[in-house]
Amino acid sequence: MSAVKMGLTIEEAAECTGIGRNTMRKLVEWGKLPVLKVGRKTIIRRDTLERFLTVNQGRNLLKPDDVRRVE
Fold first, then answer.
1. What are the tens digits of pLDDT across the range 3-49?
2. Staple partner for 14: which of 24, 42, 50, 55, CB 3.0–4.6 Å?
């Protein structure tokens, strides 16, 4: 029995959403996507990522002013 991970690394989040790793890093850097820092590792909660995708559907994620921040 495999458990579903609650948190994803930048690379895992990029892979499961189809968003590039560099774009995912920019979203975190811009403060649009909240994360948990554990040492050097950055963790994104799965539910937060899903909410982020829903709120930003149809928006250009490469333009910081177009991206809505989620809590």
1. 788 999 999 999 999 999 999 999 999 999 999 999 999 999 999 99
2. 24
DSSP-derived secondary structure for the chain: --PPPSEEEHHHHHHHH---HHHHHHHHHTTSS--EEETTEEEEEHHHHHHHHHHTTTS-TTSTTTPPP--
For the chain, the structural domain boundaries read: 7-55
